[in-house]
């Protein structure tokens, strides 16, 4: 079982609930954080003190307040940690349940578990912690298809890249130039136009703005 765990969530009640779950599992040291920047600094300090955290449990969404932050989301934190602490097990505990987002977190950042905050969230989180401690991956039932073949409404990484560039306000010509500069193919304007038209049909979007809004609501970008 884990001995030194960092919890990162901006809700006091959730932090308290996770703390109780960890105590029931006989975790010796539990540290809490409510900001992603704060969590990263705690990880860094623990490493300097040779008291590394052996598990991070974090939410994805954090509300902004008066404090200026560099890491605004749990995903930002995870990306940073995977650079500095690539082997630290990470469990995401979140309200989001989009398969594309879960698949991306697993594929890109190698998270070890994803637990949905719902009525059975506490039980599932306890199970997730125990399974991850054994070197297994845990996904809540709502998102366990994230490791299965893609469903009709899900899209590949190239499409996600196109949508992210479109969300930045880039034109099709600019998207083509960006893809070429980063060695991503296909990168022709005609291919980009065809893929974006297909995505608009797939998500029943009237235009590019509608497409970006829809895919953001679905958690794809």
Q: Structural class, please?
A: alpha/beta
How would you name the CATH homologous superfamily of the largest domain? Response regulator
> Strands across the major sheet, in which order?
2-1-3-4-5-6
The backbone outline, from C-alpha atoms, is elongated
CATH architecture of the largest domain: 3-Layer(aba) Sandwich
CATH topology of the largest domain: Rossmann fold
Largest sheet: 6 strands, parallel
Q: What is the arithmetic mean of pLDDT? A: 92
Helix coverage percent: 40-55%
The number of domains: 2
β-strand amount: 5-15%
- Unreliable stretches (pLDDT < 50, length at least 5) are none
Kindly provide the name of the CATH class of the largest domain.
Answer: Alpha Beta
Radius of gyration: 19 Å
Series of secondary-structure elements, N-terminal to C-terminal? EHEHEHEHEHEHHHH
Number of DSSP helical runs: 9
How many β-strand stretches? 6
Give your account of this protein's structure.
By secondary structure, the protein is of the alpha/beta class. It has two domains: 4-147, Rossmann fold, CATH 3.40.50; 157-217, Arc Repressor Mutant, subunit A (Orthogonal Bundle). It contains nine helices and six strands, in the order βαβαβαβαβαβαααα. The protein has helices at residues 12-24, 36-48, 74-84, 99-109, 121-133, 157-167, 172-181, 189-202, 208-217, and strands at 4-8, 29-33, 55-58, 90-94, 113-116, 138-139. The chain has a six-stranded parallel sheet with strand order 2-1-3-4-5-6, with helices on both faces. Helix 1 packs across helix 5 and helix 6 packs across helix 9. The longest helix has 14 residues, at 189-202. The chain is elongated and about 60 Å long. The model has no long low-confidence stretch (mean pLDDT 92).
């Amino acid at each position: 079982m884990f001995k030194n765990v960092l919890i990162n969530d901006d809700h006091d009640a959730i932090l308290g609930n996770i703390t109780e779950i960890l105590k029931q599992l006989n975790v010796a040291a539990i540290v809490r954080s409510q900001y992603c920047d704060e969590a990263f600094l705690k990880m860094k300090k623990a490493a300097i003190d040779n008291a590394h955290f052996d598990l991070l449990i974090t939410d994805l969404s954090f509300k902004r307040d008066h404090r200026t932050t560099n890491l605004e989301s749990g995903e930002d934190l995870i990306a940073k940690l995977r650079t500095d602490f690539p082997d630290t097990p990470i469990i995401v505990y979140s309200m989001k349940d989009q398969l594309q987002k879960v698949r991306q977190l697993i594929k890109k950042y190698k998270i070890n578990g994803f637990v949905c905050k719902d009525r059975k969230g506490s039980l599932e989180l306890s199970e997730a912690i125990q399974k991850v401690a054994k070197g297994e991956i845990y996904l809540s039932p709502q998102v366990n298809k994230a490791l299965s073949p893609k469903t009709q409404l899900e899209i590949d990484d190239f499409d996600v890249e196109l949508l992210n560039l479109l969300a930045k306000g880039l034109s099709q010509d600019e998207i083509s130039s960006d893809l070429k500069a980063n060695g991503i193919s296909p990168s022709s304007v005609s291919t980009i136009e065809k893929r974006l038209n297909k995505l608009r049909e797939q998500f029943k979007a009237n235009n590019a703005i509608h497409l970006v809004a829809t895919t953001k609501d679905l958690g794809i970008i």
